[in-house]
Amino acid sequence: IMTCSFDASLQIWNLKSRKQIGDDWQDRDSGVWTIALSPDGKKTVSGSMDGGVRLWDMDTGKPIGSPLQHPSHVLSVSFSVDGKLLATGCDDNNAYTWDVS
Known about the structure:
By secondary structure, this protein is mostly beta strands. Helix content is 0%, strand content 57%.
């Protein structure tokens, strides 16, 4: 399972042992509100309080590319079924779509 936190980190956990796997993933200084796993399981996306959306490589735990910036807090993120599009919901009352193929 993967969790996100207001300390700006993401963590992966072993459900059986209840122990964290590896180190925290951290790239920004702003709390992370929301995360989603891509349909193929190769990427995850995080949405932050500072309006940043970050794609992550699940194998390396490293960010992919530059953050996608929003005008306000990002409250929700979701991949399309084929994983090529990303939908984000922002505190500015708008939804955005991004080509992440």
